[in-house]
Amino acid sequence: MNRYEEAELQLEMEKVEQELSDYLRDPGYGNAVGRILRDLGESRGKRLRPRLLLMAGRYGPLFPDVRDRLCRLAALVELVHMASLVHDDIVDDAPLRRGMPTTQAKYGKDMAVYAGDLLLSRIVQSLFRDGFGSVGAFFGQTVETMCLGELGQMECRFREDVTVRQYMENIYGKTAALCRLACLAGAAESGCSGEVQTRLEELGINFGYMFQIRDDLLDFTSDAAREGKCTHMDFREGILTLPVLYAMENEDARPGIVCLIREAKAGRFDENQAKRLAELVTSSGGLRRAAEDMEMYAERALSAVGNLPDHGVSDVFRRLLQTKRSACNAS
Predict the structure, then answer these.
(1) 17 vs 269: CA distance, rounded Å
(2) Can you state the percent helix, strand and coil of the chain, rounding each to 5?
(3) Which residues of 130-163 are buried (b: 16+ CB within 10 A; e: fewer)?
(4) Whole-number Å distance between alpha carbons of 56 and 193
(5) Is residue 101 within a helix (H) or strand (E), and if so which, with residue range?
(6) Sorting pLDDT into bands at 50, 70 and 90, what band is 3?
(7) Residue 97: in which H helix or E strand, if any?
(8) Largest Cα–Cα distance of the chain, in whole Å?
(9) Could you tell me the CA-to-CA distances from 257 to 182, 251, 260 in Å, in that order?
(10) How does 172-188 read in b/e, with b if 16+ C-beta sit within 10 Å?
(11) Which range, of 4-18, 47-61, 150-164, 192-206, averages the lowest pLDDT?
């Protein structure tokens, strides 16, 4: 690993936090609005997407001159992610996010809807005000793709005929598209060549697929305390993830899983049934096949890194990929 690049990235991530604080400033319209924005700032995630953007930006010849702009752009990408989570929690009626009460649980669904919209409005303002016109279209396209992914997933809820292809299309919108945006926006803003932009775009997409499948696997291989959420929540909500879909391709496991889907739809999915689901997904090979797919996307992301120009940040990319895949394999 390149220690210098890691140290510099850490300094930039601190700058990203400062930018986020600016975007989450209290507009002074009411105490509740200020509290919501403060809560969102305190509910810190992994910040993977800003990190991807900053790392991608290092490959461009303009990087030294646009470093501060990349930090602001990275904060905008995180703001897109933040707004999407606020809206997701409304749809899911989720009480907790990262161990803290969600906006909709604490302030009500109406306030949460407008809070998410407020974040999106600040993104649009910044794209125009701060001269990010060259990447603004990428942001618009990504938000559209994210919405389509969520709509596709909603359409597939509790359906017994959902295919792996439909799942992949949905998670492209839900997860991979925003990782793609992070890498592509960083590359474009720093003046990367078309070929380098394409390689970084491939890296972002494959990282996104790997990360989402990893999350699906952890739902079966980790406990609720470690992940900060109840296991099998997707299944309870009628969302069939990759391990489940692969398990349903097994003739012996399919009838049992279909019964569990119907129980979940009727609101009768308890811990015993969750245990039965885990047994079926494991014994049918669904878990193994999904893990193999995760490894495939990890290797594709690593291959994209290998095709990039030799740069110290490439080692940081490799370390990040290896850390994420190893966390799942160790579970």
Answers:
(1) 40
(2) 75, 0, 20
(3) eebeebbebbeebbebbebbbebbeebeeeeebe
(4) 12
(5) strand 100-101
(6) confident
(7) strand 96-97
(8) 60
(9) 37, 10, 5
(10) bbbbbbbbbbbbbbbbb
(11) 4-18
Distances (CA, A) of 288 to 227, 244, 294: 21, 11, 10
CA distance linking residue 274 with residue 269, whole number of Å: 7
pTM value surpassing 0.90: yes
How many residues would you count in the chain?
331
Of 218, 241, 238, which is closest to residue 230 (Cα–Cα)? 218
Long-range Cβ pairs for the range 253-256 (8 Å, 24+)? 253/280, 253/281, 253/283, 253/284, 253/286, 256/280
**Tokens 């890296």 found at:** 203
pLDDT in tens, 192-213: 999 999 999 999 999 999 999 9
pLDDT tens, 232-259?
A: 889 999 999 999 999 999 999 999 999 9
